[in-house]
Amino acid sequence: MLFRKNVLWLALLSLLLTSHDYWFSAEKFILKKGDTLTLHLLVGDDLNAEEERVVQRYKTINYALHTAAGAENLLPAMQDSTLPILHKQLNFNGLGLISMERNFSRITLVDSMFHRYLIHEYQIDAMDTREKPGRKHARERERYARSLKVLVQVGQPNSADRTFARRLGHRIEIIPGQNPYLMKPGNLLEAQLLFEGKPMLKKVIMALHKEPDGKFTELITYTDEQGFARFKLPYRGAWVLRTTHLRPCQNCPDADWESFWTAFSFAIP
Question: Where do the domains of the chain lie?
Answer without folding.
Answer: 2-268
